C-alpha cells in the first residue's frame, strides 16, 4: 500500500510540475509580448514601428493556457478559491460536518464533470469544423484543448477528493496532508 501511495505522490508531483511550468512560461511570454507591443507602438523611430497584427491571437492562446492549466494546478492541491467551507465551523456534530464536506466535494465534482463535458464538446466541434485562427491559421482546437485537458484533471482529482472525504467519514483519524495530493 505504501508503494502505491509513493507512486501516486510521484505522479501528482510530476503533473503539478508540468502545470506549473506551463503557467509560468505563459505568464513570462505574455509579459514579454506586452512589453514588445508597447515598445513597437511607442517607438520614436518610424522605421521600427511595426504592427504586431498577430499579437491578440497569441495573447489569447497563452492566456487560455495560463488560466485553465493554472486552475487545474490549484484544483489538484485544493488551493483554489472556496465559498462553501465557511458553514463547517458552525456545524458542531463531527459526523454531520463530514457529511457536509462530502456533499460539497460532490457538488464540486459535478461542476468539474459539466465543465469537462462542455469544454470537450467545444474543442471537438472546432476540430470537426476545422476552425482556424486569423493570423497564423492555427486550428482553434489548439486554443480550446486546454479546457478539456484541465477539466479532465479536475474531474480526476475531484473524484479523489470525494473518496478521501468519504474515507474520513468512516475513519476520522485520517488527516488531510498538504503533500497528499
Write the SSE topology.
Layout: H1 2-42, H2 55-76, H3 94-128, H4 140-144, H5 146-170
Structure description:
This protein has 181 residues and is mainly α. It has one domain. The chain is built from five helices and no strands. It is elongated, with a radius of gyration of 21 Å. The model has no long low-confidence stretch (mean pLDDT 86).
**Mind describing the biggest β-sheet?**
none
> Quick one: overall form?
elongated
Strand content: under 5%
Number of domains: 1
Number of strands: 0
- Weakly predicted, low-confidence segments: none
Order of helices and strands: HHHHH
How many helices? 5
Rounded to an integer in angstroms, the radius of gyration calculated over CA atoms is 21 Å
Structural class: mainly alpha
Distance between the amino and carboxyl termini? 16 Å
Mean pLDDT: 86
Provide the helix percentage: over 70%
Give descriptors for this structure.
single chain, 181 residues, mainly alpha, 71% helix
Give a quick precis of the structure.
The chain is mainly α and 181 residues long. 71% of the residues lie in helices and 0% in strands. The relative contact order is 0.12.
Amino acid at each position: 500500500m505504501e508503494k502505491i501511495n509513493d507512486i501516486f505522490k510521484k505522479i501528482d508531483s510530476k503533473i503539478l510540475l508540468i502545470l506549473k511550468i506551463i503557467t509560468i512560461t505563459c505568464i513570462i511570454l505574455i509579459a514579454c509580448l506586452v512589453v514588445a507591443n508597447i515598445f513597437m507602438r511607442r517607438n520614436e523611430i518610424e522605421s521600427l514601428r511595426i504592427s504586431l497584427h498577430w499579437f491578440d491571437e497569441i495573447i489569447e492562446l497563452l492566456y487560455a493556457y495560463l488560466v485553465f492549466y493554472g486552475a487545474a494546478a490549484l484544483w489538484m492541491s485544493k488551493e483554489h478559491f472556496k465559498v462553501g467551507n465557511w458553514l463547517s465551523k458552525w456545524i458542531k456534530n463531527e459526523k454531520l460536518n463530514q457529511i457536509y464536506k462530502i456533499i460539497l466535494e460532490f457538488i464540486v465534482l459535478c461542476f468539474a464533470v459539466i465543465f469537462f463535458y462542455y469544454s470537450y464538446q467545444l474543442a471537438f466541434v472546432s476540430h470537426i469544423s476545422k476552425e482556424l485562427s486569423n493570423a497564423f491559421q492555427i486550428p482553434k482546437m489548439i486554443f480550446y484543448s486546454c479546457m478539456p485537458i484541465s477539466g479532465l484533471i479536475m474531474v480526476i482529482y475531484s473524484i479523489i477528493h470525494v473518496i478521501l472525504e468519504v474515507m474520513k467519514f468512516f475513519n476520522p483519524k485520517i488527516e488531510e496532508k498538504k503533500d497528499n495530493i
